[in-house]
Design a protein that fits this description.
Helices cover about 35% and strands about 20% of the residues. It is α/β, with parallel strands linked by helices. About 45% of the residues are buried. Helix 1 links the parallel strand 1 (about 5-10) and strand 2. The longest helix is centred in the last third of the chain and has 27 residues, at about 205-230. The protein starts with a strand and ends with a helix. The strands form two sheets. A five-stranded mixed beta sheet has the order 3-2-1-9-10, with helices on both faces. It has eight helices and ten strands. Bound molecules: fe (ii) ion (FE2). Fe (ii) ion binds next to loops.
Length: about 250
């Protein structure tokens, strides 16, 4: 028998995006204060996971699951427990080739505006996906999760609630309760089997506006940094910080 585990499987840290105010260890500390049992740090095309970090999390009562938000043919896809470097998964054909039964594949914020969201492509590739994300980024009036909820119901796939946090205040606004033991295999298999429940509340308009403004400003700053770097010979630009990643942030992912 398992227990009910509080989980957020979609989180970002400074190791993936320089504008984020906290690193992986600070995020783990904060999540422990919020009573989380399970986390996955899913930076873009970057695996932020090693034994030392998993031990750090375990000492604080948290099971850390290796995960990544991969960019697959320009669309974001959450992949957990992967055994190949994320850069090998660039196409849906790659995903189909490498995917193993012990992975978990989730469609993040699939019907939000923005070219990085799966949208209708999810319908064509639905066999690759175990679950569909219910994103924290919505209000009572504006909610792009509705199509995701319908698709989950129509295809018999579970919904996974997550914060996709880039800012401290996003944590705990939406998360999942998973009936599982505290192991990676047990948690992922529980999600696949639908033993997961979304806990959520809509953002207030004030919260929604604050998140949009802060992520928008970060995108503008990053865009300026990129432009400056192009004008300054010898400076390097991180591939992970390209504009499209920031555009996704504005979309609430
Ligand atoms: Fe994300």
């Amino acid at each position: 028998m398992g227990s009910t585990l509080k989980a957020d499987l979609h989180l970002h840290t400074r190791e993936g995006e320089a504008f984020i105010a906290y690193g992986a260890r600070e995020l783990i500390d904060r999540a422990a204060e919020h009573g989380f049992d399970v986390l996955s740090i899913t930076n873009h095309d970057t695996l932020t996971f090693d034994r030392e970090l998993a031990d750090y999390a375990r000492e604080r009562g948290i099971l850390l699951i290796p995960g990544v938000e991969a960019t697959v043919e320009g669309k974001h896809v959450l992949i957990y427990n992967l055994h190949v470097p994320p850069e090998r998964i660039r196409s849906f054909a790659d995903l189909r080739r490498y995917r193993r039964p012990d992975w978990l594949v989730v469609a993040p914020h699939p019907f939000y505006p923005g070219s990085i969201c799966l949208g209708r492509r999810l319908l064509r590739e639905i066999d690759l996906f175990d679950a569909i994300e219910f994103s924290h980024f919505y209000t009572r009036a504006i909610d792009f999760n509705r199509a995701a909820v319908r698709l989950a119901r129509d295809t018999g796939r579970p919904l996974v609630g997550s914060s996709d946090a880039h800012l401290p205040g996003q944590l705990s606004t939406t998360y999942s309760l998973i009936e599982a033991q505290r192991t990676v295999a047990s948690v992922l298999s529980a999600v696949r089997a639908g033993r997961v429940q979304v806990v959520t509340r809509p953002l207030t308009v004030r919260e929604w506006a604050a998140i949009t403004t802060r992520l928008g400003l970060a995108a503008v700053r990053e865009s300026a940094r990129q432009a400056l770097a192009r004008w300054s010979p010898g400076r390097t630009v991180s591939r992970r910080m390209l504009w499209k990643g920031q555009a996704r942030s504005i979309a609430g992912s």
